[in-house]
Amino acid sequence: MADFDDSHDYIRIDEKRCTGCVLCMKACPTKAIRVRKGIARIEGPCIYCGECIRACPKGAIKAITNGDDFSSLARHPILSVSPVFYTQFLSVSPVFYTQSDRRVMPNDILLALRRRFNYVYDQAYMNELFNLATEWYIRKHHSDEAPLWPLISPNCPVVNRIIAQRFQSLMKHLLPIITPRELVAKYLKERLRSEGVPLESIGVYDVTPCAAEMISIREPVTLQKSYLDGALGMSELFNIVHKSLREIDTSKVLHQSGGIGLGWGMSGGEIEGLNSGKYLAVSGIKETIRYLEKLEMGLLSDIEYVEFRACPEGCIGGPMALKDRYQAKNNLRRLVRMFGTAKRIHDADAERLFSAGWFFIDRKDFLERRDSKRLPISEAIRRQGEVEKTLKLLPGKECGACGSPDCRTFAEDVVDGRASLEDCVFVKPGFHQPIF
Questions:
Q1: Which regions of the chain are under pLDDT 70?
Q2: Residue 344 shares a structural domain with residue 429
Q3: What does pTM read for this prediction?
């Protein structure tokens, strides 16, 4: 697997728009951003959470997807549609209604996409299948000689990268089941191959609100190789759906899931689809990190399964979603009530696939991580001593004026040769701190 701190190809900063305001730098949970010569730059371990995108008042930061150039897609593109996309249309102005007396439903959105793309798949249905596989795995895990609790949902790509970077002892807690978005691609490619379709002519693309989706496809944490071929941002497809809604054939049915699969778009939706047990749902990047610290200390060993989502309120809060997350949450709750809380999958088929191992990840894919960038212990101790000495020379103002997010990070940058001590305005010759 690739190292996690080298590639920033999927988060771009437009230097023409950037004003060097340091808001993105302050928002970054991994302190990956610096402001050099008045321009923000990603220099540290980016986890692609999108907090910088939310924080930028100038719209200078964006996540890169395949939607930047539709001509680059496969000859026969297939879309796997996240249920979050349905929330972007349900409660909007009447121009989006397909008829004057009805609102836009998930099936309408899938049909509208189908007019432009070869095939579309309701990912919410695979969410329900994943729920069932998770229930069976948890039940089976109870019989292990020394069950490892809690299991961690593998579904948020940002959380996977946080664990891989900062909490590697928790990698073994990740549920070894392939995520629904990947299962969709796996299933469709297997089916098309069996029908004689040449796979080199097709590409499966995830329709997502997530800024980390592209990096999770190109450099996956839990798989050796992704089944997906790329991702499209919801904002990039909104107008395509808008223009096609009035031309769809509503007699066709593409939407397959019930409310359980749809509910995955908001925090708690995944565990809502599980039978009774000791489960927990946590959302938001700061809360996620706080709870991962608790897990690392062994404080939540009475919990069986934790659903983490890095975005506030869950995936509906993703940086590539268009609708306000609270409006989207209201829309999603309405959909869940409308479609009910019963899974719409065939248990016998699912059990056959589970027994055959179709859902499972080879654990060594993500347990045998190595960090080639880690310093030898002696060098790390020497470096830390230099950082502490440098830190004593700094004022502790945490102002960010130096271009680093805080004084400790600035001290590290100085020791690593990425900044000069004189970059601190309080250290510059001739600067006098006010007495009061």
A1: 1-8, 90-102, 364-374, 428-436
A2: no
A3: 0.89
